[in-house]
Design goal:
There is one protein chain. The protein has eight helices and 16 strands. The chain has about 290 residues and is of the alpha+beta class. Strands 7, 8, 9, 10, 11, 12, 13, 14 and 15 form a nine-stranded mixed β-sheet that branches. A seven-stranded antiparallel β-sheet has the order 2-1-6-5-3-4-16. α6 crosses α8. The protein is globular and about 55 Å long. The protein starts with a strand and ends with a strand.
């Protein structure tokens, strides 16, 4: 079955989808994006994702391409045309097409919008969860505003490639003070020696993940204490559990970091409880 995408007012075959060579997202990474999980024909945590999209647009001063209701309609249509039951929907907004110049183009230039979707097999994520993943630590060399979900992800790309070449599935960024920030495409959590669930505060050094936010609701429902504070690589390596969270994977245990086994080398009970309860708590918007 062919895939379909939405590009600036048109639904087109995915293979034929294209943007102008002077689109500022292509030239400058002058763009933001969101990724939502789709589970059983429902978009997960849609309101929070669109709230974050609005914040990202505001932070880099791009006008929204359309009202929210119209955007949701396009997302639903792209999902329907791609017959997605379980999978993801991706949307990207750029500052638009204009002659190459570092300063903003005139206000008459309209933002560009691209929406794509694809199916994902839930069994693949379940298998990764059951086995756990391996990770490596890397210096955090990203710009100082990773709280804005921009498409400027070159440091993340290089970090994830380094992880792959080391036989791992995720890279963990560590700041100049030796404290963990987050994963290359995930937020990171530990269960410390006291049994508290700990994650980095959502300052400018990390992205305030939507799954991260909903996980805090899940933890509250389960009576799990959460503490937002910095923690070192050494503390992470000695933790009872380490796991990462993201929109399409929800919760993945990390069983090895830099070749060192975490705890007993198997997924822990806290991660299991959170994963089991997540979709009960998360917002679900029917396609």
């Amino acid at each position: 079955m062919p895939r379909f995408a939405y590009v600036n007012g048109r639904y087109v075959r995915h293979a034929d989808a294209a943007v102008h060579i002077e689109d500022r997202g292509f030239v400058f990474a002058d763009a933001v994006y969101e990724v939502c999980q789709v589970r059983e024909r429902c978009i997960v945590d849609l309101s929070r994702h669109l709230d974050r999209l609005d914040r990202s647009l505001g932070e880099i001063r791009i006008r929204p391409p359309m009202p929210r209701a119209a955007l949701v309609g396009i997302m639903r249509e792209v999902l329907r045309r791609n017959r997605v039951v379980d999978g993801m929907v991706y949307l990207q907004v750029t500052r638009g097409v204009a002659r190459r110049d570092h300063v903003f183009p005139s206000p008459e230039v309209r933002a560009s919008l691209v929406v794509t979707a694809k199916s994902l097999d839930p069994a693949v994520s379940a298998a990764k969860y059951a086995a756990g993943i391996r990770a490596v630590t890397v210096p955090d060399n990203r710009w100082g505003r990773v709280d804005i979900k921009t498409v400027g992800l070159l440091p993340n790309v290089l970090a994830r490639q380094q992880a792959k070449e080391a036989g791992a599935q995720e890279a963990i960024f560590v700041d100049a003070e030796g404290n963990v920030t987050e994963g290359g495409a995930t937020n990171l959590w530990i269960v410390d020696r006291a049994g508290t669930l700990v994650t980095r505060p959502a300052d400018h050094a990390i992205l305030r993940g939507i799954t991260r936010t909903t996980l805090m609701d899940v933890a509250a429902k389960l009576g799990i204490l959460v503490e937002e504070r910095c923690f070192s690589t050494a503390e992470m390596l000695e933790a009872r559990e380490v796991f990462v969270t993201g929109a399409t994977t929800i919760c993945l245990p990390v069983v090895s970091i830099d070749g060192k086994t975490i705890a007993n080398g198997h997924p822990g009970m806290t991660a299991q409880k959170i994963r089991d309860a997540f979709f009960v708590v998360a917002e679900k918007t029917a396609i």
